[in-house]
Specification:
Residues 135-158 are annotated as: Disordered. The chain has helices spanning 12-96, 104-146. The N and C termini lie far apart (170 Å). The protein has two domains: 13-95; 110-146. The radius of gyration is 60 Å and the shape is elongated. 81% of the residues lie in helices and 0% in strands. It has two helices and no strands. The protein is mainly alpha-helical and 158 residues long.
């Protein structure tokens, strides 16, 4: 007989009986698994409860141990560390801040410009005054030529 599977048809009754045997084996395996799980649960549940209780107790111990240390650390930060950090940051800010520029050059240029402007305005006013004096002198001379004054120093009325 060869190792290849036989492709001839088997009787229907034989196939059904094989399927039923496989189903029975699966049922037996499932029931054995359920029984084993129930036994394991009976053992594990009390251990899990005990572990939970121990963990809760140790958590409370850890909290009571760490609370005073945190309070002490907070006091240190507030009283010692924070002022040091603050002064360090302030010093760094002062070091980083740019120095004020020297404004002497700008102020000197502004003063020189204001002085030149003042001299220019004064010169313009003096020029105007001298021009107006010259014009008034010329007008007086031309009037005196056209209207001679009497010898007694009084003006004639027209």
């Amino acid at each position: 007989m060869s190792l290849k599977k036989s492709i001839r048809r088997k009787p229907r009754d034989a196939a059904v009986s094989r399927f039923e045997r496989v189903q029975d084996a699966c049922r037996q395996g499932a029931s054995l698994c359920r029984q084993g799980a129930a036994i394991a649960a009976e053992r594990i549940v009390p251990a899990a409860r005990e572990g939970r209780d121990i963990a809760a107790e140790r958590l409370l111990i850890a909290r009571s141990w760490s609370a005073p240390r945190l309070i002490r650390a907070a006091g240190y930060v507030e009283s010692d560390l924070a002022p040091r950090v603050s002064s360090l940051l302030t010093d760094m800010a002062h070091r980083l801040e740019p120095h004020p520029r020297n404004r002497r050059g700008r102020n000197a240029a502004l003063i020189m410009t204001a002085g030149a402007t003042a001299i220019g305005v004064a010169g313009a006013l003096l020029t105007r005054r001298s021009v107006s004096r010259t014009m008034t002198d010329e007008l007086r001379e031309s009037e005196s030529e056209h209207h001679p004054t009497p010898s007694d120093g009084q003006m004639r009325s027209s």
